[in-house]
Amino acid sequence: MMFKQLSFILIISFVTLTATLLVSADVQAFNSDTYTFADEVTEKRYQALTKELRCPKCQNQNLADSNSPIAADLRREVYELLMQGKADSEIVDFMVKRYGDFVLYRPRVSTMTYVLWFGPALLLLIGVIVVVMILRKKPSKKSQQAMSSEQKDKLAQILKDK
Amino acid sequence: MNKLIRFIPLVLFIALGAVLYKGLFLNPQALPSALVGQKMPSFELSQLTNSDRMLTENDLKGNVVLLNVWGTWCVYCKYEHPYLVDIAKSGRVSLYGLNYKDDRQDAQQWLKDYEDPYGFSIFDPLGKLGIELGVTAAPETFVIDQHGMIRMKHVGPIDSKVWQEKFLPVIELLEQEATSTKVSNTMTMNKGEYDV
Fold this sequence. Notes:
The complex is a heterodimer of chains A (162) and B (196).
Chain A lengths: L1 H23 L15 H13 L16 H15 L4 H12 L14 H23 L4 H4 L4 H13 L1
Chain B lengths: L1 H23 L19 E4 L2 E7 L7 E7 L4 H16 L3 E7 L3 H10 L7 E4 L3 H5 L7 E6 L4 E6 L4 H36 L1
Parallel strand pairs in B: 3-4, 4-5
Antiparallel strand pairs in B: 1-2, 3-6, 6-7
């Protein structure tokens, strides 16, 4: 069936596109900081934290990406807190306490963010249900029915006349 | 039933359109402050005009305290400066400055060149207190009550419109609170006297 093939192609291209976007979003960020770390784990944690915390001034960048002064200050703060031996969750709490939930690129699950977390899945589910319903819908009887004897006669008549 | 279903996409479209349309007129820079309703964070920083004098949160005294974050590098601080001078002259509030990520010499010169509206300015070259307060840039102004609670935060410059619409209602509320606590204080004092 034409329609089935078409929807299959659409779904495949959507998945591929999403995957491409996810991969390309993962490019390494650069800023001019030169912090040194005692071990690799701390460095990895620093990178992860500055990537997940959002710059409160330049709202479409994380701390690692942004060159704004406040982002540099907050990177320094993250570094200092790491040096003090604070846990990742403590550092995140420190930022949220001062700048609000807004600094989290991965918002916490709360009544405020249910729509954000579960909305897309819900929409996808609704979409799947609708597609399935359309695909399973039997073509209406009228078009499936063979010609009635009356119509057959008429057709034969027309052909004969030719 | 089938006819009703046909209208669902249209209804959804209109609802989505309404939400997005409203979003066009929201200010993305206006973030809810996590600090409102919290106590003024503690700090120990030197005074801008006197590096020997250390200031703490206890120095911010007054029934209604305004803490204005400013810097010589900040264009809008110059814009709001005349309004701040007026506010300071009215004497209705105690206005203090937080000199944020600035050079001490430059900032002192700035206050000399224009006019110093502040009771004093806290010197915060590294923006440490700024981070404690969730400051993202200057100018920002905090309204603090007599108990050292942050009651409002305003991001951006103050002008007469902002002052009228945003600050005055809060200031009036705080003034009422201050007088009512004073009344209750004197009442308890009186009661004490009678008891003796």
